[in-house]
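call fold target=Aldo/keto reductase
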Amino acid sequence: METNKSFRTTKKLQNILSFATIPPSVNQVEMNPTCQQKNLIEFCLANNIVVTAFSPLRAKGASWGTNEVLDNEVLKAIAKARGKTVAQVCLRWIYEQGATIVFKSYSKERLKENLEIFDWALSEDDTQKIKLIPQRRVNVGPSETLDQAIWDGEI
């Protein structure tokens, strides 16, 4: 899903905004409770750039994905307390951050379930617990030097 046109850091966005006659309107980036990208999201929203979250569940089952989101104990506890799935908690959290979401499923039932996030809200306590989840990217550079060049030290 990620393209070369994705502006991964506030530094890269500041650079393009300094000369672009037509600024970017959408920034599609990895975003989920284990890769929250708080600074980038705030920067985009402050500059009227829509954030679209890809990999909202960390692509469990994909060769490059992980189980970090769906197996996260904090998210599991919130889901259990709310009578929701972990996927619904994650998607609702992204929605509450002001981002749009790219998700997929081959299951009609899960697609329907993924859309059942608009008639409830996370509590402030839930949101605070999610903020404390350790952060890590799945999509990283092949070396520390390249990783620094790609991400500008941001997560």
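return ok
The longest helix spans residues 86-96. The longest strand covers residues 26-30.
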